[in-house]
Sequence to fold (133 residues):
Amino acid sequence: MLGGQLYDRLRGHRVMALMIVLMAVSTALTPSCPLLWLLVAVLFVTGAVQGVLQHRRENALLVWVHGNKVGPFMNGLHFFFGVGTFITPIIVAQFIARQGGLVGNYMLLAVIILPTAVLPSCPARLRPKPPRA
Fold:
């Protein structure tokens, strides 16, 4: 609920970029928490950030940006969600097989998450333009 208010009051792309950075940071901090209460706090932040980044917010931003021509962009969004869902367990399994631990795995996932914050945080002139009607 609070995430929706953030998107309504602030620029949605900046909110999304900030939440992606927070997700990468919280993912990187997860394996280094020595105390249970600290781990719970980090996982709470991770869950809250994921709540702000729910599909509904991303879908709403796509509709706001592309209007009636949103179809291909919505399909692309969900296609890449599927690709990420398919590839991530493979990456995790390979990393565990080669490294033998989970700490490096969390760091790898944080590094993979971080570049996705770049496009929403770019100035509007650098973002792809929606097709004209």
